[in-house]
Design a protein that fits this description.
This protein is α/β, with parallel strands linked by helices. The protein has 11 helices and 8 strands. It has a single domain, classed as Alpha-Beta Barrel (TIM Barrel), CATH 3.20.20. An 8-stranded parallel barrel has the order 1-2-3-4-5-6-7-8, surrounded by 5 helices. The structure holds a DNA duplex.
Length: 296
DNA sequence: CGCGGTCAAGTGGCT
DNA sequence: AGCCACTTGACCGCG
Protein backbone atom coordinates (compact mmCIF):
# COMPACT_ATOMS: atom_id res chain seq x y z
CA UNK A 1 0.00 0.00 0.00
CA UNK A 2 1.14 3.48 -0.91
CA UNK A 3 -0.42 6.63 0.48
CA UNK A 4 -0.52 10.06 -1.09
CA UNK A 5 -2.39 13.29 -1.76
CA UNK A 6 -3.34 15.35 -4.81
CA UNK A 7 -1.56 18.13 -6.62
CA UNK A 8 -0.67 20.64 -3.94
CA UNK A 9 1.83 20.63 -1.09
CA UNK A 10 1.04 23.17 1.59
CA UNK A 11 4.37 22.89 3.40
CA UNK A 12 6.32 24.21 0.43
CA UNK A 13 6.26 27.78 -0.84
CA UNK A 14 5.70 26.87 -4.47
CA UNK A 15 2.89 25.58 -6.66
CA UNK A 16 3.14 23.27 -9.65
CA UNK A 17 -0.01 24.75 -11.21
CA UNK A 18 0.87 28.35 -11.88
CA UNK A 19 -0.98 29.72 -14.87
CA UNK A 20 -1.92 32.96 -16.57
CA UNK A 21 -4.82 34.42 -18.47
CA UNK A 22 -5.62 33.31 -21.98
CA UNK A 23 -5.64 36.99 -22.90
CA UNK A 24 -2.00 37.29 -21.87
CA UNK A 25 -0.81 34.15 -23.66
CA UNK A 26 2.65 34.16 -25.15
CA UNK A 27 5.19 31.43 -25.77
CA UNK A 28 7.72 33.20 -23.58
CA UNK A 29 5.25 33.24 -20.75
CA UNK A 30 4.27 29.62 -21.29
CA UNK A 31 7.87 28.46 -21.19
CA UNK A 32 8.64 30.47 -18.07
CA UNK A 33 5.58 29.16 -16.20
CA UNK A 34 6.08 25.51 -17.19
CA UNK A 35 9.68 25.76 -16.06
CA UNK A 36 8.53 27.01 -12.65
CA UNK A 37 5.79 24.37 -12.40
CA UNK A 38 8.16 21.52 -13.17
CA UNK A 39 10.76 22.87 -10.73
CA UNK A 40 8.11 22.99 -8.04
CA UNK A 41 6.94 19.48 -8.94
CA UNK A 42 10.48 18.28 -8.39
CA UNK A 43 10.51 19.83 -4.92
CA UNK A 44 7.14 18.27 -4.08
CA UNK A 45 8.35 14.84 -5.18
CA UNK A 46 11.47 15.22 -3.06
CA UNK A 47 9.33 16.19 -0.07
CA UNK A 48 7.15 13.15 -0.68
CA UNK A 49 10.09 10.78 -0.85
CA UNK A 50 11.56 12.27 2.33
CA UNK A 51 8.25 11.70 4.11
CA UNK A 52 7.36 8.27 2.75
CA UNK A 53 4.41 9.48 0.68
CA UNK A 54 4.80 7.37 -2.45
CA UNK A 55 1.54 8.11 -4.24
CA UNK A 56 0.95 11.50 -5.87
CA UNK A 57 -1.47 13.08 -8.30
CA UNK A 58 0.07 15.51 -10.76
CA UNK A 59 -1.78 18.76 -11.29
CA UNK A 60 -3.61 19.16 -14.61
CA UNK A 61 -2.18 22.66 -14.70
CA UNK A 62 1.48 21.70 -15.17
CA UNK A 63 1.33 23.03 -18.74
CA UNK A 64 -1.19 25.89 -19.03
CA UNK A 65 -3.45 25.74 -22.11
CA UNK A 66 -1.80 22.47 -23.09
CA UNK A 67 -4.91 21.28 -24.93
CA UNK A 68 -6.11 24.68 -26.08
CA UNK A 69 -5.91 25.65 -29.74
CA UNK A 70 -3.90 28.75 -28.86
CA UNK A 71 -0.99 26.60 -27.73
CA UNK A 72 0.90 25.46 -30.79
CA UNK A 73 4.26 25.48 -29.08
CA UNK A 74 6.15 22.17 -28.94
CA UNK A 75 6.52 22.16 -25.16
CA UNK A 76 6.92 18.38 -25.27
CA UNK A 77 10.22 18.79 -27.09
CA UNK A 78 11.33 21.85 -25.15
CA UNK A 79 10.91 20.10 -21.78
CA UNK A 80 11.72 16.56 -22.90
CA UNK A 81 14.74 16.17 -20.64
CA UNK A 82 13.06 17.77 -17.66
CA UNK A 83 10.13 15.38 -17.92
CA UNK A 84 12.49 12.46 -18.36
CA UNK A 85 14.48 13.38 -15.26
CA UNK A 86 11.30 13.75 -13.23
CA UNK A 87 10.22 10.32 -14.43
CA UNK A 88 13.56 8.80 -13.52
CA UNK A 89 13.27 10.26 -10.04
CA UNK A 90 9.74 8.85 -9.70
CA UNK A 91 10.78 5.41 -10.89
CA UNK A 92 13.96 5.26 -8.83
CA UNK A 93 11.91 5.90 -5.68
CA UNK A 94 9.15 3.50 -6.67
CA UNK A 95 6.45 6.16 -6.57
CA UNK A 96 2.96 5.74 -8.05
CA UNK A 97 1.53 8.61 -10.13
CA UNK A 98 -1.92 9.55 -11.32
CA UNK A 99 -3.60 12.50 -13.02
CA UNK A 100 -7.24 13.54 -12.78
CA UNK A 101 -8.53 15.56 -15.74
CA UNK A 102 -11.05 18.04 -14.44
CA UNK A 103 -14.80 18.34 -14.76
CA UNK A 104 -14.64 19.65 -18.30
CA UNK A 105 -13.52 16.29 -19.61
CA UNK A 106 -16.78 14.56 -20.55
CA UNK A 107 -16.42 11.75 -23.06
CA UNK A 108 -20.15 11.09 -23.44
CA UNK A 109 -21.30 14.66 -23.97
CA UNK A 110 -23.85 15.11 -26.76
CA UNK A 111 -21.77 18.12 -27.79
CA UNK A 112 -19.10 16.94 -30.23
CA UNK A 113 -16.86 19.91 -29.51
CA UNK A 114 -16.89 19.02 -25.81
CA UNK A 115 -15.86 15.47 -26.70
CA UNK A 116 -13.05 16.71 -28.97
CA UNK A 117 -11.77 19.06 -26.26
CA UNK A 118 -11.98 16.25 -23.74
CA UNK A 119 -9.93 13.92 -25.90
CA UNK A 120 -7.32 16.62 -26.47
CA UNK A 121 -7.03 17.09 -22.72
CA UNK A 122 -6.62 13.36 -22.16
CA UNK A 123 -3.95 13.23 -24.85
CA UNK A 124 -2.09 16.07 -23.09
CA UNK A 125 -2.22 14.44 -19.68
CA UNK A 126 -1.28 11.04 -21.03
CA UNK A 127 1.65 12.59 -22.86
CA UNK A 128 2.99 14.00 -19.59
CA UNK A 129 3.11 10.47 -18.15
CA UNK A 130 4.59 9.17 -21.42
CA UNK A 131 7.28 11.86 -21.46
CA UNK A 132 8.19 10.82 -17.93
CA UNK A 133 8.62 7.27 -19.18
CA UNK A 134 6.17 5.87 -16.64
CA UNK A 135 4.60 2.48 -17.26
CA UNK A 136 0.87 1.81 -17.51
CA UNK A 137 0.41 1.71 -13.75
CA UNK A 138 0.41 5.53 -13.93
CA UNK A 139 -3.23 6.32 -14.58
CA UNK A 140 -5.62 8.96 -15.88
CA UNK A 141 -8.72 9.12 -13.75
CA UNK A 142 -12.02 10.47 -15.02
CA UNK A 143 -15.70 10.20 -14.15
CA UNK A 144 -18.48 8.68 -16.23
CA UNK A 145 -19.69 12.12 -17.32
CA UNK A 146 -23.29 13.22 -17.65
CA UNK A 147 -26.42 11.07 -17.75
CA UNK A 148 -28.57 13.44 -19.83
CA UNK A 149 -31.72 11.80 -18.56
CA UNK A 150 -30.81 8.42 -20.09
CA UNK A 151 -27.84 6.82 -18.41
CA UNK A 152 -27.76 3.58 -20.44
CA UNK A 153 -27.51 5.59 -23.66
CA UNK A 154 -24.91 7.85 -22.11
CA UNK A 155 -22.84 4.81 -21.15
CA UNK A 156 -23.12 3.40 -24.65
CA UNK A 157 -21.92 6.74 -26.01
CA UNK A 158 -18.98 6.62 -23.60
CA UNK A 159 -18.03 3.17 -24.87
CA UNK A 160 -18.39 4.26 -28.47
CA UNK A 161 -16.03 7.20 -27.98
CA UNK A 162 -13.65 4.96 -26.05
CA UNK A 163 -13.43 2.37 -28.82
CA UNK A 164 -13.57 4.65 -31.85
CA UNK A 165 -11.95 7.94 -30.92
CA UNK A 166 -9.42 7.50 -28.12
CA UNK A 167 -5.77 6.92 -29.02
CA UNK A 168 -4.25 3.71 -27.64
CA UNK A 169 -1.89 5.76 -25.48
CA UNK A 170 -4.89 7.20 -23.61
CA UNK A 171 -6.84 3.93 -23.45
CA UNK A 172 -3.87 2.20 -21.84
CA UNK A 173 -4.03 4.63 -18.91
CA UNK A 174 -7.68 5.57 -18.63
CA UNK A 175 -9.68 4.61 -15.55
CA UNK A 176 -13.17 5.52 -14.41
CA UNK A 177 -13.96 6.57 -10.85
CA UNK A 178 -17.37 6.40 -9.18
CA UNK A 179 -18.75 9.89 -8.53
CA UNK A 180 -21.10 11.15 -5.84
CA UNK A 181 -24.26 11.86 -7.82
CA UNK A 182 -24.42 10.14 -11.25
CA UNK A 183 -22.12 7.16 -11.83
CA UNK A 184 -22.08 4.72 -8.92
CA UNK A 185 -19.68 1.84 -8.46
CA UNK A 186 -22.21 -0.42 -10.21
CA UNK A 187 -22.40 1.98 -13.16
CA UNK A 188 -18.60 2.09 -13.35
CA UNK A 189 -18.51 -1.71 -13.38
CA UNK A 190 -20.80 -1.59 -16.40
CA UNK A 191 -18.43 0.89 -18.07
CA UNK A 192 -15.63 -1.53 -17.24
CA UNK A 193 -17.54 -4.34 -18.96
CA UNK A 194 -18.02 -2.14 -22.03
CA UNK A 195 -14.44 -0.91 -22.28
CA UNK A 196 -12.06 -2.89 -20.08
CA UNK A 197 -11.10 0.23 -18.11
CA UNK A 198 -10.11 -0.38 -14.49
CA UNK A 199 -12.38 1.17 -11.87
CA UNK A 200 -10.91 3.58 -9.32
CA UNK A 201 -12.92 3.33 -6.13
CA UNK A 202 -13.83 6.38 -4.06
CA UNK A 203 -15.12 5.38 -0.63
CA UNK A 204 -16.74 8.72 0.09
CA UNK A 205 -18.55 8.90 -3.23
CA UNK A 206 -19.70 5.35 -2.59
CA UNK A 207 -21.21 6.49 0.69
CA UNK A 208 -22.99 9.34 -1.15
CA UNK A 209 -24.14 7.23 -4.11
CA UNK A 210 -24.07 3.49 -3.78
CA UNK A 211 -26.31 0.51 -3.29
CA UNK A 212 -25.16 -0.04 0.26
CA UNK A 213 -22.46 -2.57 -0.61
CA UNK A 214 -20.21 -3.02 2.43
CA UNK A 215 -16.82 -1.32 2.03
CA UNK A 216 -14.73 -4.49 1.73
CA UNK A 217 -17.10 -5.92 -0.86
CA UNK A 218 -17.03 -2.69 -2.89
CA UNK A 219 -13.23 -2.55 -2.75
CA UNK A 220 -13.00 -6.13 -3.96
CA UNK A 221 -15.36 -5.48 -6.86
CA UNK A 222 -13.29 -2.50 -7.98
CA UNK A 223 -10.04 -4.43 -7.47
CA UNK A 224 -11.26 -7.20 -9.76
CA UNK A 225 -11.16 -4.74 -12.70
CA UNK A 226 -7.37 -4.23 -12.38
CA UNK A 227 -4.97 -6.39 -14.36
CA UNK A 228 -1.27 -6.98 -13.76
CA UNK A 229 -0.24 -4.25 -16.23
CA UNK A 230 -2.50 -1.71 -14.45
CA UNK A 231 -0.90 -2.24 -11.07
CA UNK A 232 -2.59 -2.24 -7.69
CA UNK A 233 -6.11 -0.85 -7.24
CA UNK A 234 -6.11 2.92 -6.88
CA UNK A 235 -8.54 4.46 -4.42
CA UNK A 236 -9.57 7.93 -3.38
CA UNK A 237 -10.21 8.18 0.33
CA UNK A 238 -12.18 10.91 2.07
CA UNK A 239 -15.05 11.47 4.46
CA UNK A 240 -17.91 13.89 5.04
CA UNK A 241 -17.13 17.32 6.50
CA UNK A 242 -19.17 17.37 9.73
CA UNK A 243 -22.09 19.81 9.64
CA UNK A 244 -21.43 20.71 6.01
CA UNK A 245 -23.37 20.00 2.86
CA UNK A 246 -23.47 16.33 1.96
CA UNK A 247 -20.57 15.47 -0.29
CA UNK A 248 -18.19 18.12 1.02
CA UNK A 249 -14.76 16.74 1.87
CA UNK A 250 -13.35 17.08 5.38
CA UNK A 251 -10.72 19.66 6.21
CA UNK A 252 -8.53 17.19 8.10
CA UNK A 253 -8.54 13.43 8.27
CA UNK A 254 -10.92 11.87 10.81
CA UNK A 255 -8.44 9.42 12.23
CA UNK A 256 -10.99 7.06 13.75
CA UNK A 257 -12.88 6.76 10.46
CA UNK A 258 -9.67 6.06 8.58
CA UNK A 259 -8.69 3.47 11.15
CA UNK A 260 -12.13 1.85 10.75
CA UNK A 261 -11.77 1.85 6.98
CA UNK A 262 -8.46 0.02 7.18
CA UNK A 263 -9.89 -2.47 9.65
CA UNK A 264 -12.92 -3.07 7.42
CA UNK A 265 -10.67 -3.77 4.44
CA UNK A 266 -8.13 -5.92 6.25
CA UNK A 267 -6.41 -8.33 3.92
CA UNK A 268 -6.99 -6.13 0.85
CA UNK A 269 -4.29 -4.03 -0.73
CA UNK A 270 -4.58 -0.73 -2.60
CA UNK A 271 -2.88 2.62 -3.17
CA UNK A 272 -4.72 5.38 -1.35
CA UNK A 273 -5.09 8.99 -2.45
CA UNK A 274 -6.29 11.16 0.43
CA UNK A 275 -8.68 13.73 -0.97
CA UNK A 276 -8.64 15.87 2.10
CA UNK A 277 -8.33 19.62 2.16
CA UNK A 278 -5.19 19.91 4.23
CA UNK A 279 -3.23 17.68 1.85
CA UNK A 280 0.04 16.22 3.04
CA UNK A 281 -0.76 16.89 6.70
CA UNK A 282 -3.56 14.32 6.63
CA UNK A 283 -1.64 12.02 4.32
CA UNK A 284 1.13 11.89 6.92
CA UNK A 285 -1.37 11.02 9.66
CA UNK A 286 -2.86 8.32 7.43
CA UNK A 287 0.61 6.95 6.83
CA UNK A 288 1.18 6.58 10.57
CA UNK A 289 -2.15 4.86 11.10
CA UNK A 290 -1.54 2.46 8.23
CA UNK A 291 1.93 1.72 9.61
CA UNK A 292 0.56 1.01 13.07
CA UNK A 293 -1.84 -1.51 11.54
CA UNK A 294 0.91 -3.19 9.57
CA UNK A 295 -0.62 -2.22 6.22
CA UNK A 296 2.50 -0.79 4.57
C1' DC B 1 0.36 45.63 -1.84
C1' DG B 2 -4.01 43.51 -0.69
C1' DC B 3 -8.63 42.65 -2.14
C1' DG B 4 -12.15 40.82 -4.97
C1' DG B 5 -13.95 39.67 -9.47
C1' DT B 6 -12.93 36.58 -12.83
C1' DC B 7 -10.87 32.90 -15.34
C1' DA B 8 -10.77 27.66 -21.35
C1' DA B 9 -13.65 24.18 -20.64
C1' DG B 10 -19.48 20.71 -18.28
C1' DT B 11 -22.94 18.85 -15.50
C1' DG B 12 -26.39 18.33 -12.15
C1' DG B 13 -28.24 19.25 -7.55
C1' DC B 14 -29.44 22.72 -4.43
C1' DT B 15 -31.60 27.13 -2.98
C1' DA C 1 -32.73 31.18 -12.59
C1' DG C 2 -28.68 31.33 -10.46
C1' DC C 3 -25.21 29.34 -7.38
C1' DC C 4 -22.20 25.87 -6.04
C1' DA C 5 -19.12 21.96 -6.12
C1' DC C 6 -16.01 19.32 -8.43
C1' DT C 7 -9.15 16.37 -7.87
C1' DT C 8 -6.62 21.52 -7.08
C1' DG C 9 -7.15 28.25 -6.66
C1' DA C 10 -4.44 31.56 -9.16
C1' DC C 11 -4.32 35.81 -11.90
C1' DC C 12 -4.74 40.54 -12.47
C1' DG C 13 -6.84 45.07 -12.40
C1' DC C 14 -8.04 48.33 -9.25
C1' DG C 15 -8.06 51.11 -5.17
Amino acid sequence: MKIGYPCINESLDCTSSRTFRLASYSEERLIAIVEQNLACLRRILEYNVAHGLLFFRLSSGLVPFASHAINTYNWQEHFRMTFRRLGEYIKSHNMRISMHPDQFVVLNSPNEQTVRNSIAELVYQGSVLDLMGLNMTAKLQIHGGGAYGDKPSAMDRFADVYHNQLPDAVKARLCVENDDRTYSLQDCLVLHELTGMPVIFDNFHHECLGNGEPMAEAVQMAASTWQQKDGLLMMDYSSQAPGERRGKHVQQIEEQLFHDFLTDTEGLDMDLMLEIKDKEASALKALEIAKSLGRL
